[in-house]
Amino acid sequence: MDDLETRELRYFVAVAEELHFGRAADRLGIAQPPLSRAIRRLERRLGVRLLDRDRRGVALTDAGGVLLREARAALDAVAAAARRTRRAGDPKRPLVLVTKAGASHELLRRLLDALAGEPGAAPVEVLLCEVGEQARLLRDGHADAALMHRPFDDLAGFDTEDILAEGQVALLPAAHPLASRSRLTMADVRDVPDLPIARWPRLDGSYPDGPGPEVRTQSQLAQLVALGRALLVIPASSRAWQWPDHVAVPVVDAPEVTTVVAWPPGSRSQEVAALVRTAAGLRAAFAREAHHPAAGGDGPGGLRILGPMTSAPERTDGRA
Amino acid sequence: MDDLETRELRYFVAVAEELHFGRAADRLGIAQPPLSRAIRRLERRLGVRLLDRDRRGVALTDAGGVLLREARAALDAVAAAARRTRRAGDPKRPLVLVTKAGASHELLRRLLDALAGEPGAAPVEVLLCEVGEQARLLRDGHADAALMHRPFDDLAGFDTEDILAEGQVALLPAAHPLASRSRLTMADVRDVPDLPIARWPRLDGSYPDGPGPEVRTQSQLAQLVALGRALLVIPASSRAWQWPDHVAVPVVDAPEVTTVVAWPPGSRSQEVAALVRTAAGLRAAFAREAHHPAAGGDGPGGLRILGPMTSAPERTDGRA
DNA sequence: CTGTCCGATACCCGGCGGGTATCACAGCGT
DNA sequence: ACGCTGTGATACCCGCCGGGTATCGGACAG
């Protein structure tokens, strides 16, 4: 029938996240009664119970869970519409490229250099974010394109182009016994008693089990590593954010990580297309200077240059 | 700042599509002055001119074009939120699978049989639509999954799984000189004087140049073919919608068509996952009964069974 | 039993969305 | 030249709905 207003969706998301009408109303800057009324009307309009208000607390129903996910996506889309329109009206709009802080440092540097070198290219602004934030920033219009990493990031819903694949390395204090090894396996680094692997949140926000500390931000992680309290397995190119007294040792059987450039589907923007083309061009540049004779034939920890294949959003689980 | 309301987006889309305030207001069921006011406020809020109202007519600015595209996507997302929530609250919700009428007939039949045979599977409802409609129906929540065809359909923004690849055939009146050939090439069928190839709209809605009639719906096409007024190059499996006195001749160099099952990214639904799994299982079933020893080795016009690869939304141009 | 916590209800008010009437202006026909 | 017509903008009014305050009702805790 009549469709929902964004205000109602915002209200519902607030309640669904807080599971508490009072706090949600507070967060929204309105009083509690209008909020209750709005949610009630929303339920009546949809003909579905969204919340179980049982004594002492509010819980999401199945339908409520669906609406929470869908409403977030819809609100992102609305916000994206506003942001992209504003920026389209700005004559000297810079292109915003978002990437995880510290990842793909060398690629990013080369990409920016290449773009600066192109004659008619739009200026590019780099937005550094925390792990897993790229998808939202791309979806809600804060960014025009992103560097993301398969299989870590959620690429669902974007168009992507693979740029380069690489192995992973373990980052160890130089004094650690394992630091002298020339290669390691996952079995070697899992369950090292004094150096547990830090645990990242999965895509749904929960943490996997394990002995390591729970980590959500890059800075938390940096400090843990600097303190010698955590072991890290990261893509080889992330050696860029280097600690002086740590060494990187290739982990031969760690999953390969592919850096991809991603952009919102259906983006007909000339500027985004140019950026993607330039990034794809770097694939060849990396291939030239990596003087390994056969692509894909170099050892783990090195870069594997991808052929000109087109690829490939796919669903992934979090980095477990 | 303050974000847009869906009503404002609906209003803008109506005006942008009609390029006429009066007609747009009529379509929206409101009077013209409030509509003018709403658009004006929208422009003021965004700080961007969306429409050039020069005397005698309205035109979209660049920013207006961006907003039109983004607003459609956002409205689809909002509509999808409402529909999916309603259906999630329905205890006996059927799964809606959308596909082009007439395409992949045999696959569809087998898929439905397989799903009916599964013990705990949800009932499936099939929604048949016109060419190019699947993406919208999937995006706005009318459907839970779709059978689509690469490279014809726009797969951007969906998760997909390839099911089978096949060649294309030319559909000819039995009496036609070319009908006796056992194989044809695109050069043979292009520019046949008495049988021009029908022209489909591209993804952007425009038509390619050429001598053939412009066609938008399956029924238009069916009539043209039945009248012997148009030549058709279609996937081999679409022979299902057969005309009694037409024959299908393989076109060896026509692009291969891949039937994929697509679903909205991030769909955590158990039922959709089961459908995709069943569809992927059919890939193996097709492989078994097609007693060609080597996959991919059979002649053009036949089916090529895909290996268990994971793939691959990619941007495509329309069927030109 | 009573205090407290929390969502629901009752009721009021102001602003905004929507309506009608009208204006301003550009083509255009005669 | 002059109205006619078609278009979007302006002026102004009204009713509804979003938001506020006050209060209720039920469920624990003690």
Throw out a few tags for this protein.
D-Maltodextrin-Binding Protein, domain 2; disordered C terminus; alpha+beta; DNA-binding; 320 residues; homodimer; 36% helix; 3-stranded antiparallel β-sheet
Chart the SSEs and their pairings:
Two copies of one chain form a homodimer.
Chain A: H1 6-18, H2 21-28, H3 32-46, E1 51-53, E2 58-60, H4 62-89, E3 95-100, H5 105-117, E4 124-129, H6 134-139, E5 145-150, E6 159-166, E7 168-173, H7 186-189, H8 218-226, E8 232-235, E9 246-251, E10 257-263, H9 270-289, E11 303-305
Parallel strand pairs in A: 3-4, 3-5
Antiparallel strand pairs in A: 1-2, 5-10, 6-10, 6-11, 7-8, 7-9
Helix pairs in contact in A: 1-2, 1-4, 5-9
Chain A binds a DNA duplex (30 and 30 nucleotides) through residues 7, 20-22, 30-34, 36-38, 40, 53, 55-58.
